[in-house]
Amino acid sequence: MAPPLAGVVRLAAASRVLVLSLSILARLLFRPYDTSASLNPPCLSSSSPSAPSSPLTNLSAAVSSLAVWDGVHFARPAECGYEYEQSFAFLPLLPASIALLARSLFAPLVPVLGYRAVLVLSGYVLNNVAFVAAAAYFYRLSVLILKDRKAAYRASVLFCFNPASVFYSSLYSESLYALFSLGGLFYLFSGANTVAAIMLALSGSARSNGALNAGYFCFQALLQAYDAAVRKKRPLFAIQALVAAALRTIFIFLPFFAFQAYAYLNICVHGSSEELRPWCKTKVPLLYGFIQSHYWGVGFLRYFQVKQLPNFLLASPVLSLAVYSIIHYTKMLHQLFRTTSIHMQIITALEESSVESCKGSDDMTVSRSELSTGSTNKTQGNSKVKQRKSIATEKASATFHDTMSANQNIKEIQDEGSILLLPFVLHLAFMTFTAFFVMHVQVSTRFLSASPPIYWAAAHILASPNCSSRRWSYLICVYFIAYILLGSLLFSNFYPFT
Questions:
Q1: For the region Disordered, what residue ranges are annotated (predicted)?
Q2: Which DSSP category does 91 fall into?
Q3: How many of the other CB atoms lie within 10 Å of CB of 357?
């Protein structure tokens, strides 16, 4: 049987083939509602490479038209840079990545298809590959947190076929965000803090909510500071942990604020407009918030209108699943803290993180020692093995009951959950509140799609044997399948979806 990780990778790749096939089929069978995406005026600052006049011009136009909805706004900065104020709402990681691919790996295709079509093609290739990698990280992170490979695998299957699948296979930033956020969290809880900080910072340059991932470092620092101050009685170590977390938090926020500074320099300092824009005059001139409010009407309760009721209905499945996830894991943590002290939970979490960070080096050391003692010591090794067996048997009789008791306690803690679930629940709760009360609620499906607790809770429902859970399992499967089909049909043809 293939390892679960390999199975997840294959499923993720198969899901991308399925979604792309459905999207292409929908484009062939139905006419797009809005064809303005095919319009591509020249760049304001400089002319970009254009499609050649050749028999492949129709193919170039077909590829370029695959940039739909926000994909148009990601392709334009990649081709022309940030020309308009509202274009700064689309963070630079995806445009910069596809521009790099178009000018390097896919550069030979530019004379054939034209630069814009190659940009779109680069985005599709990049995002689908990134999704497969994100699914692998999702599985590895789920194993770390849930301590259950079967549950992690079920949740990973759900992630591979999640309701926002069409966005992960389009010219959107969801795939890059999922890759770097899930990868960063995996390395964080594995003890590789430097790699984790880099990946989480990159997630913040893909989507603005990526900066919220700094909260996981804050949570880790609180655990380490508590352990150092209370258990080890070393307050200096506690201060060191808090300072290190503060520096990593600043590092994660840095890409987002650097991009805002770039916008301020381009529009407020070196802009061609004679009159300063309103946001330039504020004490903290952040363009991103101004764009969301001014151009799209984003704000607290501003979307609560009768005419938006269909959009609330469209988002209700993922919001319901998110609320269930929050309640389910909150109850689990409450029960956990009633049966096991927070002190013991913190120690267990830190020890597990230490074990994960040392596991690779320990395996390497064991392998090297086995190779170095090889065939020349076989006879001596056999006699020592017998000695060790007799000693081990004597020790085992004395420590058997203690070991079984300790293992039983550990198993009970793992079955009830872990304190490591807490930051995931808090993060999801904040995201769900924002999606429902502040944002355009219909984007909740993709906004929450990279949040692991949603899939962990759904996988828990699918594995539950009682009758009510079976009914909910059926509804979850119908929801996932229906949104994949609807998304492939509607979104790819420029019809409103999520």
A1: 359-388
A2: -
A3: 15
Q: Positive or negative, the Cα torsion across 332, 336, 342, 348?
A: negative
Tell me if 497 sits within 8 A of 486, measured CB to CB: yes
239-249: pLDDT as tens digits = 999 999 999 99
**Can you tell me the distance from the alpha carbon of 221 to that of 199, in angstroms, rounded to the nearest whole number?**
18
Measured CA distances, 41 to 38, 50, 77, 285, 294 (Å): 10, 11, 13, 30, 25
Report whether 267 contacts 277 (CB < 8 A). Answer: yes
| Residue ranges of the chain with per-residue pLDDT less than 50 | 1, 50-55, 360-386, 388-416
Token pair belonging to 216: 């996981």
The count of other CB atoms within 10 Å of the CB of residue 115 is 24
CA-based nearest residue to 99, from 81, 117, 84, 119: 119
Among the listed residues 360, 381, 361, the one whose alpha carbon sits nearest the alpha carbon of residue 372: 381
CA-to-CA separations, 279 to 254, 263, 272, 274, 292, in angstroms, rounded: 20, 11, 16, 15, 12
Q: pLDDT tens digits for 175-214?
A: 999 999 999 999 999 989 999 999 999 999 999 999 999 9
Distance CA 290, CA 271 (A): 17
Q: So what's the pLDDT on residue 251?
A: 96
Task: Name which of 453, 458, 460, 452 is nearest 182 in CA terms.
Answer: 452
Burial of 254 (C-beta count, 10 Å sphere; 0-12/13-18/19+) = middle
- Residues 411-430 have pLDDT tens digits of 444 444 789 999 999 999 99
- Give 223: exposed, middle or buried? Use CB within 10 Å, 0-12, 13-18, 19+: buried
Q: What is the pTM of this model?
A: 0.86
The rounded distance, in Å, linking the Cα atoms of 72 and 55 is: 25
